[in-house]
Q: What sequence folds into this?
């Protein structure tokens, strides 16, 4: 204690306060790099979705209408992996690529390379998914208004939540303690606490999404703008700083770890944006799947990979 | 300003659209008519750019009357097209769209677009630019307006958020002008300008369609809660910067009523544009009411700033 003088303690206190503030106060300037905009990664597709990454930062996506799953290396080289559709893709801790195949009412896993296929669950309608470090899988079954828990090891499969109007995108906090689910037909991203057994608790409408102005809407007072009830909140991702990202009709909506909006990145195309995901050698590129095209942009963020153990402490944010 | 408050408090703001549109139009008419009563600094100061200069080529003005819109159904309106003498079909012209066109086309008003454009273009201080000067729409079933500010659809078209007015320009007006004239498709060569509700209307067009219009000139802009436009400063701060260049003019004597404070709203806009790193400029001045006297006086300077780096 001799060396810890009053002033040292004060200084430490200020450092701590600054750190705490940085975890919440995250304007777009802490995400975007000046001069770095959206660039086309791939085009000429049917309807792309399912962005995700492997441990080397290779980027993966799917085409629903011209069924295929692709890998794009950081140098841009593209490889066709499987000629099957998938509306959501994520790697699991076992190294397999898990894929939602709602049209076939099943969830499958592919071993890469080679593409050996294993059916994980059937009689389900998965739209999108996350796979946790434990290997637990959460899928959104949009039509059933349900988030479904699947444990491939035990074969357990149960409704983890029912009631969100149209659960669609799904992601985890970096420490994997929180599950976030976007409502395509509503204006909220819902957050849950993940309990040790994988069940969900503490459901809250944690993030409020901006929606488009409905130019044909008529408000009661005849002058206030009418906003569309549906955000078209679709695929989601998370970065290591704890920010949440959701693809919507207005673009990518970004939220700080406490659920407050950091900002909106307008869509790079006027067509539907289905999802977002990070990839790249340092997980620094934010990818967006938009109808027939895939875009990406370099950011100050570092995307989270859920098949890797979370870091012991939050990653300091770049200012 | 007391007289203004009385006008506002007596105005019903509930009901169907045509009623509200009429009410809002009359409000803004009253605002214009009453503006400046209480303020000393309230004179229009003509510059040489506002006067016809010997030897400067004179552009042409064509009037379009009783235009019926499909985007704004049940409306008719008049509008004008100014074509500079230097226009050549083989070189697509820049475009600048003006709301409340009647005020901007008038040769004796505070704007005098044809004269100012003639002078600026002749001096090489702005590119060869075709001006499209459009009045707001009027429902032909409504009583005939006493003057051009009193048309029925002005507030609905100008104060509303969303892309409807941009669609009106892009789907109806620009294609019509393009039948006769070669217009640039470069969004940096497309500017849009208005005063009061016409100011927020111009910003909304740029905000919604920066792929089409990237230069915005707003004077005494109504970034207040007439129809929800007070949200723009918050939207700007939390939206990735759009490729817009924005000039804002306002004055301390501008309106303060139940919709908001124009003076503070414009400063909030400027602060938000600064925060997000926009290419923007302000001319905020003491005095002056809700009118175009100061905006008109500095109009040539604002145009020079907007077009400063564009190929002439």
A:
């Amino acid at each position: 204690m001799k060396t810890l003088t009053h002033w040292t303690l004060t200084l430490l206190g200020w450092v701590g306060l600054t750190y705490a503030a940085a975890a919440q106060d995250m304007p777009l300037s802490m995400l975007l790099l000046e001069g770095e905009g959206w660039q086309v990664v791939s085009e000429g597709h049917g309807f792309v979705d399912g962005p995700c990454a492997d441990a080397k930062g290779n980027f993966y996506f799917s085409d629903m209408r011209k069924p295929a799953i692709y890998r794009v290396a950081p140098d841009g080289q593209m490889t066709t992996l499987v000629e099957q559709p998938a509306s959501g893709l994520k790697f699991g801790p076992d190294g397999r690529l898990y894929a939602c195949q709602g049209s076939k009412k099943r969830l499958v896993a592919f071993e890469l390379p080679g593409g050996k296929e294993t059916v994980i669950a059937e009689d389900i309608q998965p739209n999108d998914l996350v796979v946790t470090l434990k290997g637990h899988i959460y899928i959104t079954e949009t039509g059933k208004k349900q988030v479904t828990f699947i444990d491939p090891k035990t074969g357990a499969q149960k409704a983890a939540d029912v009631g969100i109007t149209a659960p669609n995108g799904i992601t985890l906090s970096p420490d994997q303690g929180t599950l976030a689910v976007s409502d395509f037909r509503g204006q909220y991203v819902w957050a849950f606490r993940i309990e040790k057994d994988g069940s969900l608790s503490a459901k809250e409408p944690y993030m409020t999404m901006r929606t488009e102005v409905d130019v044909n809407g008529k408000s009661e007072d005849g002058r206030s703008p009418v906003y569309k009830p549906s955000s078209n909140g679709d695929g989601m991702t998370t970065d290591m700083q704890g920010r949440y990202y959701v693809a919507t009709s207005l673009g990518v909506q970004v939220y700080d770890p406490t659920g407050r909006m950091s900002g909106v990145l307008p869509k790079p195309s006027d067509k539907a944006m289905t999802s977002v995901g990070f990839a790249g050698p340092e997980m620094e590129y934010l990818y967006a799947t938009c109808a027939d095209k895939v875009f990406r942009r370099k950011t100050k963020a570092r995307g989270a990979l859920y098949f890797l153990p979370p870091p012991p402490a939050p990653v300091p944010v770049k200012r | 300003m007391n007289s203004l408050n009385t006008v506002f408090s007596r105005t019903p703001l509930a009901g169907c659209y045509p009623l509200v549109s009429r009410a809002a139009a009359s409000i803004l008419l009253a605002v214009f008519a009453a503006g400046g009563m209480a303020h000393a600094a309230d004179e229009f100061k003509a510059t040489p750019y506002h006067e016809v200069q010997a030897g400067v080529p004179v552009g042409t003005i064509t009037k379009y009357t009783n235009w019926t819109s499909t985007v704004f159904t049940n409306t008719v309106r008049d509008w004008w097209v100014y074509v500079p003498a230097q226009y050549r079909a083989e070189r697509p012209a820049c475009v600048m769209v003006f709301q409340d066109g009647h005020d901007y086309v008038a040769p004796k008003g505070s704007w005098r677009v044809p004269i100012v454009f003639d002078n600026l273009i002749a001096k090489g201080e702005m590119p060869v630019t075709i001006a499209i000067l459009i009045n707001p729409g009027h429902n032909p079933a409504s009583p005939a307006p006493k003057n051009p500010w009193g048309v029925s659809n002005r507030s609905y078209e100008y104060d509303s958020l969303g892309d409807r007015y941009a669609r009106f320009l892009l789907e109806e007006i620009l294609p019509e002008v393009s039948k006769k004239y070669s217009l640039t498709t470069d969004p940096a060569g497309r500017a849009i300008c208005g005063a009061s509700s016409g100011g927020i209307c111009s910003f909304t067009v740029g905000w919604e369609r920066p792929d089409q219009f990237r230069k915005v000139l707003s004077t005494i802009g109504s970034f207040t809660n007439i129809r929800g436009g007070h949200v723009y400063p918050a939207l700007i701060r939390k939206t990735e910067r759009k490729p817009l260049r924005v000039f804002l003019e306002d004055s301390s004597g501008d309106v303060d009523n139940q919709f908001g404070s124009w003076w503070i709203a414009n400063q909030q806009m400027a602060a938000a544009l600064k925060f997000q790193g926009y290419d923007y400029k302000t001319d905020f001045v003491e005095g002056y009411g809700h009118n175009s006297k100061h905006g008109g006086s500095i109009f040539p300077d604002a145009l020079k700033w907007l077009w400063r780096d564009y190929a002439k």
Q: What stands out?
A: The two ends of chain B are 44 Å apart (CA to CA).
